[in-house]
Amino acid sequence: MPQSLMTDTARERRVSEQVLIPQLSLQSMFWRPKFTDDSAWYPHVPVAFWLIEAHHPQRVVELGCDEPVAYFAFCQALERLNPLCESLAFTTQPPRRAWLDYNDAQYQEFSALQQATEQQALQALDDGDVDLMHVSPSAAAAVLENWEAWERKLSPSGLVVISEAQGRTGSRHGAELYRYLKGYYSHFLFAQGAGLGIVAVGDQQSDVVSRLLAFSPRDPSARLIQQVFSRLGLACAPASAGDSSTEERPSEELAQAIAERDERIRELATLTQLLESAEQREQQERQRREQAEQARAQAAEERRALEQAHTELETRLKTVSAELTALKQAADKARADQQAEVTSLKVALDQRNREVAEQQASRKRAEERLATLEAEFDKERAARQEVEQVAAVEREQDGRRLTELRERADQLEAENRFLQAEQAQRFDEIAQLTRMLEERPAEAPAEDEEAPEASQPQVAEAPAASGEEKRPRLVERFVMRGKDARKLKRQAQLVQGSGLFDAEWYLATYPDVRGAGMPPLEHFLRFGGQEGRSPGPNFDSHWYLTEYLDVAESGMNPLLHYLKFGRSEQRLPLPGGVR
Question: What is the pTM of this model?
Answer without folding.
Answer: 0.44
